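Database export, one record per block. Field names are fixed; values are copied verbatim from the stored entry.
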Amino acid sequence: MRMNPFLWGMATGVVVGVTAELIVCPRPKCRKTAVGQAMQRMGNALDTVMVTVAKKLE
């Protein structure tokens, strides 16, 4: 199995993602706020899932 095409694809995806993020939100404060909001949403979602699972296990 050759990993070279896979690694090139992953690197290309990272570059495209970073470029798109810089175009959408060019200022560092905006990026920090977006990351903070995303982390908050993920935390809330995880809390909700854990509560749901706990209720089902009771």
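Remark 1: The chain has two helices and no strands.
Remark 2: The chain has a mean pLDDT of 82.
End of record.
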